[in-house]
């Protein structure tokens, strides 16, 4: 039984999104590290969306949704549920347009993310840290406000916006053999699939996922969506399940999904901070962890690595845990 | 009484240094932050030497010294004493030339810095954490090896190399009203003075220093070098005193030296990590701390801020302290 019809954005939607959002986003830099190239035997190109406006790639999709609204729809505001970065991003984009943004967030989300949402003017309603609770509380908020729902990843406007990231990455590099991005709900990976399947179909697309939240991996192997309620992982942006629109892209265009342990994620995160001198979230670390864990797949290849966000609670770093 | 004759590098020395070291260094990016611009009322341009080879600007001066040696001198290797980043940088440069590098370091230097020196092939001899001990142990090492001494900052080859940083900064920005850099021994500040006094004499040059290691500030006000033995500050790269060659530049070209408390340094460091998503040392934070503390000096100005290095012990972050 399907309760949602898939709405698949096109390559032209992605191109239109890029023109629409350019005034509100950064064209983030691509960094390299000779140390990490030596360690992996690959040539890695890190697309640094941790330097993006609102600290994450999600501002691309959120801005595309917000600035694509008619004035009449925009006046009622936007609303979403999110583990954090989509909430920041939608609040930022709504603020740039001067409209309200209603956000349902788990009460367990990092305090730094809640503070940042409020800093961008977002109005938070808290829910329990499960998909079930989030969806119930959200329905209530939406009914009360009449705001336009912008799903964190299953929205075609959002997927088209996320696709602009790999368009820039291809423009900033001289050809790639593969791209690898973390996968939670699949918004960034779907954006990569949307863009690369037309712009550079020779590029293999890998997704990296925590073992402890491996629903996308199991979905990919089973051939249909498997959704877990409230998995636990340090990569807190990757807990959410695939939905119809992202499943379309993942099932049709992803080469493989690679999983990594919590310790591998923490080690890759700390290694990136130490050697690349950038602040990135645990949710960004599975791709490098997967490359380090599967050297035979990537050795000798030119690999784009999406660093998805940098909104970290600096008082709670994972390697500081007992 | 002076025991050293000043040796002042020229603007042409700096230009020659840039040509000499370009193959071995990064042209580091200049980043901006609309958040920090809003907070300070200034337009800030962060020259990110934390992304530099070996993780610090010091690779500029070290590379200029190493690659300027005759083959005969180079064969005996190089030697230095350093609180850390010059040691890394000289080891890196010596490694690129294939010659030995002897390093005298305080036994209290962060373990991460010792590991990194050894990672670049440097040979460490430990000393006590005082200027007196460092110089005594170093004399012994130098006598035994015959290696060429490359002082961390009082060496004219080193100052000429550091001057290449502000040359790049001016090329990467469309005019500046001021530049501000942290001051310890004065190598980076002297490099800024060397370059800007010829290239852009209209640019005011500020130095920022920890209150707890304010020997440069007191020297500047007194009109002669005042040296403290082993001051204590979280900004561990800024503990060393001015020497003759750096005093020349500081006394002739610096507009003012601004001091900041330990807490102001920690707050500015954490703010930079949180908002700019970059890993930088506590020793890089006094400039932003000084701008936040003295808004009237910088408001409405275009200000270059030198982020000097990113070699941090991630297991010992200052805001984690009791």
UniProtKB/TrEMBL annotation, chains A, B:
UniProt keywords, alphabetically: Lyase, Pyridoxal phosphate
Claim: Lyase is one of the keywords in the record: yes
UniProt-listed InterPro entries: BHydaspDhtse, TrpB-like_PALP, TrpB-like_PALP_sf
GO biological process entries: D-serine biosynthetic process
Keyword check for Lyase: yes
Transmembrane stretches, start-end: none
Cofactor (UniProt): pyridoxal 5'-phosphate
GO molecular function: ATP binding; L-serine ammonia-lyase activity; magnesium ion binding; pyridoxal phosphate binding; serine racemase activity; threonine racemase activity
CDD domains assigned to the protein according to its UniProt record, in alphabetical order: Thr-dehyd
Tryptophan synthase beta chain-like PALP domain location: 22-309
Family: Belongs to the serine/threonine dehydratase family.
Protein's name according to its UniProt entry: Threonine dehydratase
Organism encoding this protein: Roseovarius litoreus
């Amino acid at each position: 039984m399907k309760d949602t019809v898939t709405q698949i954005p096109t390559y032209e939607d992605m191109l239109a999104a890029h023109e629409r959002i350019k005034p509100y986003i950064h064209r983030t830099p691509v960094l390299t590290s000779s140390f990490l190239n030596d360690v992996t035997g690959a040539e890695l190109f890190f697309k640094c969306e941790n330097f993006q406006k609102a600290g994450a790639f999600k501002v691309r999709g959120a801005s595309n949704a917000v600035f694509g609204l008619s004035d009449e729809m925009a006046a009622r505001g936007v609303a979403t549920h999110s583990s954090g970065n989509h909430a920041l991003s939608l609040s930022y984009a709504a603020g740039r347009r001067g409209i309200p943004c209603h956000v349902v967030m788990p009460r367990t989300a990092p305090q730094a993310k809640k503070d940042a949402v409020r800093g961008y003017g977002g109005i938070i309603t808290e829910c329990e840290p499960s998909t079930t609770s989030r969806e119930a509380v959200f329905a209530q908020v939406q009914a009360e406000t009449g705001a336009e729902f912008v799903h964190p990843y299953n929205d075609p406007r959002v997927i088209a916006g996320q696709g602009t990231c790999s368009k820039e990455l291809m423009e900033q590099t001289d050809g790639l053999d593969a791209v690898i991005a973390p996968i939670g709900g699949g918004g960034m990976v779907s954006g990569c699939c949307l863009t690369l399947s037309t712009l550079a179909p020779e590029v293999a697309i890998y997704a990296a996922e925590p073992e402890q939240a491996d629903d996308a991996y199991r979905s990919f192997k089973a051939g249909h969506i498997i959704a877990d309620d409230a998995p636990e992982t340090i990569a807190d942006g990757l807990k959410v399940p695939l939905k119809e629109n992202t499943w379309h892209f993942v099932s049709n265009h992803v080469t493989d999904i690679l999983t990594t342990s919590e310790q591998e994620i923490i080690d890759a995160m700390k290694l990136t901070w130490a050697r690349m001198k950038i602040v990135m979230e645990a949710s960004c670390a599975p791709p490098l962890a997967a490359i380090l864990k599967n050297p035979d797949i990537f050795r000798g290849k030119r690999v784009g690595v999406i660093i998805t966000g940098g909104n970290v609670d600096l008082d709670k770093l994972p390697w500081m845990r007992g």
